[in-house]
DNA sequence: GTCTATACCCTGATAGAC
DNA sequence: GTCTATCAGGGTATAGAC
């Protein structure tokens, strides 16, 4: 028989983060209580504080982990050489990665306002550094004369918003497959920064 | 001298909605207490219940008013006849309207999860009916052979997300003027649904 | 490592005086 | 129309037993 109490620090920690991620995404950080998270995990509320100093650190940890993994994952991609291909690669990557992690994405973008200034600045910096990757692609393409851009910074903000929006409506097993969605967004993105006909 | 207490129902109601809108947008619905709203308005918490039956109705009212005004305002526009111009008109309208009301926009998009099923369905229907306006423009343009669209529904979702994202970064008095932002987004939107060069 | 118990505060909402 | 006072419940976080 399994012991009722015992050492589970290696699995309880991840379970807490997983439960918090799901609940925060579903109901919002402020609307979720530590008691709810604990109930989801199957421990008492007090036990959570063995794994996080407080509720906000739990949130900030989720955001940081997500953004760091996102950036690290992007950096493992072998860069396509042509700006056109590079942008298509970014779109595919961004959509694919985000479609698989809708909860983490939602939290990282929407719960920033629940962070105190220091933590906010830290998370915001990570987000900016990811967005800078896209902006660099656009600037390179512009310098190479492949893209026609009045303002690369604005274009990168516009594209990021467009791409991330896919998590608002995409459902596994829906009308369009993942690959189809990736290609359609890539087509729109490429056209939006291309030369006028 | 002004009376300390008296009849103010004509101004207190709007003040409550304005305070709630600002606070909900800034901190999130769940994180804001009725006492905070009351303090902002300058009344006691109990007085709020003369104007709303409960906290959630206050939220739903803000969302409904915003979306109904948005749709009504769009319908006052004289439709441009050419799909090209019509899309540009929509982009200008959408960005202009949203830039002026960042709080209402944020709430209407982000606090849906705090609504109970009935209210959620009502608000969601309003949002869909607005999105359908864009989708209709895209379909018309596709039928006229002006736009090249693999999937009008996906394209409308992509464009709405792109356009609405402007509220995340635009600041009055920033590097780009309103008119510039509207034009740059319109250019990108038009190119994204245009024929390939 | 987890539990029970609890401190202390804030929540939404209501009742009744003025 | 607004106030004060209040209720019952739930919030985060901690203390100390096991």
Automatic annotation (TrEMBL), chains A, B:
The keyword Repeat does not apply. Transmembrane segments: none annotated. Residues 33-52 bind DNA. GO terms for molecular function: DNA-binding transcription factor activity; transcription cis-regulatory region binding. It comes from the Bacteria. Keywords: DNA-binding, Transcription, Transcription regulation. Residues 10-70 form the HTH tetR-type domain. PROSITE patterns: HTH_TETR_2. This is TetR family transcriptional regulator. It comes from Gemmobacter aquaticus. The lineage of its organism: Bacteria, Pseudomonadati, Pseudomonadota, Alphaproteobacteria, Rhodobacterales.
